[in-house]
Amino acid sequence: MDIAAIDSVKVLRENLLKWVCFCFGILASIFTYFNLFVNDFYPLGVLEGIFAVYCFYTFHYARTRKIHTWQPLVLCLCITLLVTLGTYLAAMKNGLFVWSFTLPVLYYLLLGCKHGFYLSLLLACVQTSVFISKPSLAPFSDLNLSLNMSFSYVGIWVIAHIFEASRAQFAQRLENLALYDPLTKTGNRLAMNHYFEVELENKTNLFTMLLDLDYFKKVNDQFGHDVGDQVLVKVASILKEVVNKGRVFRVGGEEFALFIPNSSQQESYQLAEKIRVTLQDCVINVGDREIRLTASIGLAAYRNNDTLKQQLKATDKQLYQAKKGGRNNVSAEQIHYSTNLEQVS
C-alpha cells in the first residue's frame, strides 16, 4: 500500500515550493545587486534582499522539515508586494509589471483554486490602482497597454483557474477510487492504513473493532449476490450512523473494521453491543424479501507503539473468540461490563 500516493498533491506542492524558493532566491539576489549598486534603487533593493533571504531559508526548511500551510501563502504575498511596489516605484520602461502575468499561475499551483482566485483578484485590483495612480504610462500608449494588459492577465487567470479546478476534480475522483469501497462507500484497506498511519495522530484511547456478519454466505446462496450486495450497503449505512465519532472500513467480503478514537473501554464495549443489537433487531427489506442478520464483534484497545498489523491481529483474536462463543456476540480483551444499552441509547 503506497500511502504517499494519497497525498501526492501535497507532496508535489511542497516540492514545487522548495524549488520556486530556490529560483526566486537567486533571482531576488541578482535584482538586489542591480537595484542597490547599479540602479541606485535602494528601497526595492533592500526589500528584494530580505525576500532573497526568506526564499533561501524556506528552501532549506523544506529540505529538512514538513512545510506549514502558511508558508506558500506568505511567499505569494511577498512576491505580490514586490511586483506591485516595483510597478509603483519604477518607471514603466523598466517592465516590472510584466511579472504580473506569472503570478496567477504561481498562485494556483501553490495554493489551489480558492486562494488562487482571491490572490489573482487582489493583484488585479492593486495593479489597476497602481496604473491609475501613475501620471503617465510612457513610453507605452495608455489605451493599448491597458487593453493588452487586461486581456492578457484575464486570459492567463481563466486558464489557470480552469486547469486547477479540473485537476482538483480529477484528483478527488482518483482519490475516491483509491480509498473507498465502491459498493458500500466505506473506506477500504488503503484508506484504513492511511487513517491509522497519517490522519490519526493521537492514538491514545483508541479502540478497534472487527465485525463479521454471521452466516452471510447463506444470504448469497439463497437470494443471490445482488441481494447480498444490497444487504451489505444497508449494514454499512447502519454502521456509519451508529459510529458517529469513529471511522468504518470494509476489509473483507462481509467484514468491517471500526476505529473508535478518544474512547474508553466501557464506552467502546457498549458501542459494540449497541451495534450488535441494532443489527440483530433490524429487518432488511430487499424487494419482497425480509432478511435478518446477526454479527460477531471483536474489540481491542490500542497498545502503545503497536503497528496496524499488530492492532488488527489483536482485534481478530477477539473476533475469533466471539464466533467461538456462539456468534451474535461481542468479545473484548479483559472487559466484563454489563450490556445495558440504556447508557448509550
Automatic annotation (TrEMBL):
Keywords: Membrane, Nucleotidyltransferase, Transferase, Transmembrane, Transmembrane helix. The keyword Coiled coil does not apply. It holds the Pfam family GGDEF. Residues 204-335 form the GGDEF domain. Its EC number is 2.7.7.65. It is an enzyme of class 2 (transferase). It comes from the Bacteria. CDD domains: GGDEF (cd01949). The chain crosses the membrane at residues 16-35, 41-60, 72-90, 145-163. GO terms for molecular function: diguanylate cyclase activity. It catalyses: 2 GTP = 3',3'-c-di-GMP + 2 diphosphate. NCBIfam families: GGDEF (TIGR00254). This is diguanylate cyclase. It comes from Pseudoalteromonas haloplanktis (Alteromonas haloplanktis). The lineage of its organism: Bacteria, Pseudomonadati, Pseudomonadota, Gammaproteobacteria, Alteromonadales.
